[in-house]
């Protein structure tokens, strides 16, 4: 039987060339007026999924 991709995870994570997964940062949905512009600029950038969560993300995305 074929393994299905978790569609919610497929929209949130992308595989990198080194085998990791990149993701969008949290805390950018509301309350932006009180945040510093430097903080908002950092939050716009992508980051790498932590080592502890990489295995669960890999199980949800069997085809990369």
TrEMBL record:
GO terms for molecular function: structural constituent of ribosome. The keyword Transferase does not apply. Residues 1-21 are annotated as: Disordered. InterPro entries: Ribosomal_bL35, Ribosomal_bL35-like, Ribosomal_bL35_CS, Ribosomal_bL35_sf. One of its GO terms (biological process) is translation. PROSITE patterns: RIBOSOMAL_L35. Keywords: Ribonucleoprotein, Ribosomal protein. GO terms for cellular component: cytosolic large ribosomal subunit. Belongs to the bacterial ribosomal protein bL35 family. This is 50S ribosomal protein L35.
């Amino acid at each position: 039987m074929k393994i299905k991709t978790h569609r919610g995870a497929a929209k949130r994570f992308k595989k990198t060339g080194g085998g990791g997964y990149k993701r969008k940062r949290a805390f950018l949905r509301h309350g932006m007026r009180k945040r510093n512009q430097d903080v908002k600029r950092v939050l716009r950038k992508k980051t790498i999924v932590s080592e502890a969560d990489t295995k669960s993300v890999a199980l949800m995305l069997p085809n990369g």
